[in-house]
Each structure stands twice: as structure tokens, then as C-alpha cells.
Specification:
It is a single chain. The chain is mainly α. 60% of the residues lie in helices and 0% in strands. The chain contains 7 helices and no strands. α1 packs parallel to α7.
Length: 107
């Protein structure tokens, strides 16, 4: 499913994870972004409040994605289209930032 450089690594997921690493270090030095599962970053309450999906698992399943690895390889333009059509956000990057902010605020 990966198409050239249009995967999530090109949309700043690593940048967001880096920010999480720095921020989480200040919150709790035992936590790192690599330990944050996608379903914890996007809890059901966040998904229900901001998307047409009840959970991140449902959101991914609607796209035929069965794992975080597949999500990382999913074409960003298709992901952006779903986010724009079915959420409060204009892009996956916007959704990631909002989820990250909410995650950090609830730590």
C-alpha cells in the first residue's frame, strides 16, 4: 500500500513523536512516545467526539488497516481525505496534533 514518499513518515509523524518524547520526558521520564499505542493516543472518547468513528480501531478498519504498521504505510492523501470527510480536522496532521495535545493534557 505504500506509494513512494507519500507515507506517514513524510507527513511529520516522526516530528510529532519527537515532540511527544520531549514533552513526555517533562511529564514522566518513564514514558516515551514509542510506548504510546495508537489507541491510547486516540482513545474512544476522542474519536467519538471528533470523528464519525467510535474508535481508532473502527477508523482504521474502515480503511482496511489492521495494524499500526499498516497505518504508517497508508497513503497520506487517502488518510487526509478520510480525516477531512469524517472528522473535525482538515488533515491527518491536524488530527494527530489535537490528539497529542489532549493526550499530554490528560497525563
Amino acid at each position: 500500500m505504500k506509494k513512494g514518499s507519500e507515507d506517514m513518515s513524510s507527513n511529520g509523524l516522526e516530528d510529532v513523536e519527537g515532540i511527544f518524547n520531549r514533552e513526555l520526558h517533562h511529564v514522566d521520564t518513564s514514558i516515551s512516545a514509542n510506548e504510546v499505542e495508537i489507541t491510547k493516543l486516540f482513545p474512544d472518547a476522542f474519536m467519538a467526539a471528533h470523528t464519525k468513528s467510535a474508535s481508532m480501531d473502527q477508523f482504521m478498519a474502515d480503511l482496511g488497516i489492521n495494524s499500526e504498521e499498516q497505518l504508517h504505510e497508508y497513503p497520506i492523501d487517502h488518510l487526509n481525505a478520510k480525516v477531512a470527510a469524517e472528522s473535525d480536522f482538515a488533515s491527518w496532521d491536524d488530527m494527530l496534533k489535537a490528539a497529542g495535545k489532549a493526550y499530554l493534557e490528560n497525563k
